[in-house]
Amino acid sequence: FQGMQIYTLLLLSIGSIALAEDFYGLLGVAKDADDRTIRRAFKKLAVAKHPDKNPHNENAHSEFVKINRAYEVLKDEELRKKYDQYGEEGLKDDFQGGGQQYQSWQFYNENFGIYDEDQEITTLSRADFQKNVVDSGEIWFVNFYSTFCSHCHTLAPTWRKFAQAMEGVIRIGAVNCAEDPMLCQSQRVMGYPSLVLYPSGMFYQGQRDVEVMIDFAMKYVKAEILHLTKDNYVALTEEWKDYADKPWIVDFCDDTDRCLSPLNRRKLSAMLAGLVNVGTVKCVHGEADELCEVLGRTEGVVYYSAGNVDTESEKELSSLDPRELAAAALSYMPGVEKARPDDVKEMFDHEEAVGAGTVLYFVNAAADVPDEMKKLPILFPNIKINFAECSKLDGLCAKYLDPAKLPTAVLFKRNLGYDINYGKSSTARDVAAFIRESMVSPMVVLSADRLQREIESGHLWMVDHFAPWCPPCMKLMGELRRIHSTLEEGSEMVNLKIGTVDCVKYKEVCQRAGIQSYPTSLLHFAGKHYRSVGSHTAEQIVDFIDNSLHPSVVELTLQSFQELVANRAEDETWIVDFFAPWCGPCQQLAPEYQKVARGFADEEEEKLKFGSIDCQAHGHFCGQHGVRGYPTIRAYPHGGQVQHKDYPANMWRNADSISRWVYSLLPSLVVDMGNDFFTEVLPSSEPWLVDFYAPWCGHCVQFAPYFEQIAKALEGRVKLAKINCDAWPQVCSGAQIRAFPTIRFFIGTNGGKQDHFGMGIQSHHRDQIISIIEQQLQSRQIRDEL
Predict the structure, then answer these.
(1) For residues 648 and 656, is the Cβ–Cβ distance under 8 A?
(2) Positive or negative, the Cα torsion across 146, 151, 157, 163?
(3) Where in the cell is the protein located (predicted)?
C-alpha cells in the first residue's frame, strides 16, 4: 500500500509539472536560448505587456508576474538548471513568491539590457565568464555596470563607440552586476561602472574618453609592424621562415593620406596576428626608399600572397579601414580543404586512426564555410582542418549529426573516436574553443553498440546522457572535458574514459538506462554503475567518482539497517538519508550529503556513520518508520535507544548546514560556560580557548563546527569553552566583548588570576587558530623550562 502511495505521489508530481506553464514558452524562446536572447525576449514582452501600458486589462498584473517569474528563473544559471531538471517543483526551496516585484515601464524601455543590441559587445554572466574570458587567452576589456547606476548609463554611448573602434582587435564585454552580483564580487568589483582589462584583471583608472581608452588598450595589444626596405624585403618575404610562409599586407606612404595611420596599422596587425604579415614602405618625396621604385608604388595598400611580393602578384585594396582590410586578406587566402565523402564515411564508420587529429567542419554547402575558418590551420598547426558538405554525403549527417544545427565541428581523436561540438560552431572562435577543450580530453561520442562494448569491458567509464537542446547539458560537457586537467599526477582516475550519448538520437538507449532527466551521468566500473543527475563542476564530478569508488555513505537494506543502525553500539551515531530516485530534491541533496559524509570521514570521526535507504525499493519499510516525504535526513544519536531526530525543515539542504546540525548531535569536547568562567578559566593553571558567541549571529553558527574540530585537534593540551552572551551578558560585558564570535586564549596562570581579556585570536580559520595556539604552547614550555 505504501508503494502505491509513493507511485501516486510520483504521478501527481509529474502531472503538476506538465500542467505548469512552460517558462521558455512564456518568453517565446527555445530551450537552448542564450542569456542575451532571453533578455531581449523578456524586454520585448515587458515593454508590450507592462501593466503601466495596459491599464484597462484587469489581468495585466497577473500576466506580467508570470512573465517576470519566468525571466527571473531563466536568467539565473542555478535556478535555470534546477528548472530544466525538476520543473517548478525544484524551485520551492529558493524561489518562494519570486517574480512578484517588477520595475516601471520606463525602466524596461530605457534602462534594461543596455548592451543587448550591440553586436560588438559580449554580455557575460557566471555561466560563461570563466571559459570565455579567463581561460580564453584573449585580451578582454569588460565593463562591470549596474542597471540602476546613472553613471553607467552616461558611459554607455562612449562604451559603444569604443567597442566599435576596437572590434576585432580585442574582445569587449559587459556584466550587469544588478543581475549577477556574485560574479562581480568574485572579480573584486566594488563600484559601478568598473572597467577591467583581462587577462591581467587590471582596473582602468583613466579618463572615460574613447581615444584615451583606445590608447590604454593598445598598450597591451601585441602587434608587429615590419618596415620594408630594398635591403631587407627579399630576406623577409622569401628567406626568413617566420615571415616568408605568410601573405602580406603592405601600405606605401607618401605625402598623401593614402596609407594607414600608425594606430590602424597596429590594429590590422593584431587582427591578422599569425595569419598575415603587416608591413609599411616609406615613399615620402625626398626620403623614399628604393623599394617604392622596385614595386612601382608610392601610395595605397596592397595584398601579396606568400613568397610573391612583386608587381605581378599585387592585389590593390581600396579601403583604409582595418576591419575591411582584414576581411579582404582572408578572402584572398587559400580556403579550408574539402574532405572526400569516402574519407568522411570511413572516419565515422570505423572510428580508427585514419581520422586521428582531424577536425571536420560540417556545412550544408561549400558556400557556407566562412572565410574566418582559414584562421584555424594557423591556430592548430598539428591538426588537420577540413570541411564536409552534408548535401553531398548521402544522409551521413542525418545519421551522426543534427542537420538542423549546422554548421557543426567534429574532432576525430587519436584515442579512437570522435567528439561533436553540440554548442555553437558558427565562428572560428567557437570552433577554436571547442578544439582546445576537446583535444585534452578523452571524451568521445558513443553509439548504442560501442556503449555496450565499453560497459562490458570493465574499464572506468563516465557516460553522459544528454539532450542537445538542454543548457545544463552543454555546461556539463565543458566540465567533463576539463576533468583530466584537474587531476593530480598518479590519480587513479587518469585512465578514466568519458563518453556521451545523445538521448534525442539514441532514445531507446537512454530509456533502457532509466534516464528520466538531462543531463544524467552514469559511472560504470567492474559491472556496477553509479548515477549522477544534473550539471556539476569538474571538481564535483571528481568528488562523485571518488565517493562512488570509495563510498562514505553505506547503502542500507532492511537487514543492514537493523544490524547497523537499530542495533548500533552505545557510542555510535548514524545519519540516514531516506530518498526516492525519482525525487528532484533528493537528487539535489545527494552530492551535498556525500560531501558531508566525506568531510567527517576525513576528520576520522569513527563513531559517526552515514547511510542511505532507497524508499522506492523499500517503500513499506520507509512507511513503517514514519517517513512521509523525500528526502528525509534522520539522525540516530549515540546512547542506544535514544529517540531519532529529523533534520529541521527550515534549514538549507547544503553541506555546511547539514554539517553544523550533525556536529550539534555529537558528544562535545567544548564546555558550556556562564559565571563559572570566573572560577574555572581565569584562575586555572591550564590553558583555555573560549568562544564568546550569540545564538542569532550567523557567523557564530557557521564557526561552531570549526570550534569543535579545534577542540579535537587540541584535546589533552587545551580546554575549550563557549559562552552564550545572550544568556550571560554580564560575563561578556566583563570581558569587554563587542563583536561575535570573539575568540580569546587564556594561557594559564602560575598563581593569582589572569586578565579578563586573555589573548585575542584575530582569525576564524581553523588551521590558523590551531597554529597560533600551538605556537603559544611552545613559547610557554620554553619559558617554563627557563
Answers:
(1) no
(2) negative
(3) Endoplasmic reticulum membrane
Choice among 583, 622, 725, 732 that is catalytic: 583
Given 615, 700, 725, 732, the catalytic residue: 700
DSSP 170: B
pLDDT at 41: 85
Respond yes or no: is residue 184 known to be catalytic: no
The kind and range of the H/E element at 530 are strand 528-533
> What contacts 664, CB < 8 A, 6 or more positions away?
704
Q: Beta-strand (E) ranges in 60-186?
A: 121-123, 140-145, 171-176
Question: What contacts 624, CB < 8 A, 6 or more positions away?
Answer: 2
Neighbours of 757 (CB within 10 A): 11
Instruction: Note whether 585 and 531 are within 8 A (CB).
Output: no
Residue 206 included in any domain? yes
Scan for cell 573516436, then name that residue.
Answer: 417
Clarify whether residues 135 and 79 are in a common domain: no
- Please tell me whether residues 412 and 349 are part of one structural domain: yes
Question: pLDDT tens digits, residue range 177-188?
Answer: 988 888 999 999
- Tell me the pLDDT band of 784, cut-offs 50, 70 and 90: low
Decide if 653 is inside a domain.
Answer: yes
Q: Contact at 8 Å (CB) between 278 and 249? A: yes
Q: Quick check: helix, strand or coil at residue 409?
A: strand
Q: Could you tell me whether strands 194-198 and 226-227 are parallel, antiparallel, or unpaired per DSSP bridges?
A: unpaired
Q: Which domain holds residue 148?
A: 120-217
Contact (Cβ atoms closer than 8 angstroms) between residue 769 and residue 761: yes
Asked if residue 681 is part of any domain, the answer here is: yes
| Other beta carbons less than 10 A from residue 348's beta carbon | 21
Among 217, 244, 265, residue at a domain's last position = 217
Looking at the structure, tell me whether residues 105 and 133 fall in a common domain. no
Contact predicate 446/503, CB 8 Å: no
pLDDT in tens, 183-219: 999 999 989 999 999 999 999 999 999 999 999 999 9
Grid cell in block for residue 702: 557557521
Residue 663 grid coordinates: 556536529
Q: Into how many domains does the chain fold?
A: 6
Q: Catalytic site residue 177?
A: no
Cell matching residue 676: 563559572
Q: Which of 177, 259, 586, 622 is catalytic?
A: 586
Are 228 and 211 contained in the same domain? no
732 is annotated as an active-site residue: no
